[in-house]
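Message: I would love a firmer grasp of how sequence relates to backbone shape in proteins. Thank you; the sequence and its tokens follow:
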Amino acid sequence: MINLNQKKGFTLMEILLYMTIASGILFAIISFSMQIMEVSKKSSDMQEIENNIEYISNKLSLTIQTAASIDDDDSNFDDDIGTLILNMSDIDKTPTIFYLEDEAIYLDEGGNTGIKMNSDFTKCTQLRFAKVETVKSSDQVIIDMQCEPINSDLAALKQSLSIHTTISLRR
């Protein structure tokens, strides 16, 4: 005699329940992975801005410290779109000019074509110079610089980095 009450497989309801649970777990894993990738992209964009500001700041510091003098007449101080003109000991590098144009910071040495210092993924919105003169020490330049990402995600979050530093000429 055959017993019809023996179960030998899964019912349709059990299979649907397992598929629902498995798809929920899969959805959570994929959603979590997408969030990690988005945070990683934003982090790398901020790192790009930090690298740009560090590079420009180091170049400004080294150049100002080795300059013979500051051209007060032609430099543009106390303006968000500042220009700093330095007279260098090396005649081939005189004048050395730092300036902001079209949301990029440029370096022009010896009257050559300016070299863009920030990457294409960042824009610089402020480059302000101020000169400080004291009787007992060499001239100093105060620099305020602000850079932002071009990436629309970070721009929407209003992420930007600023730097404020003072550099002395070595005489």
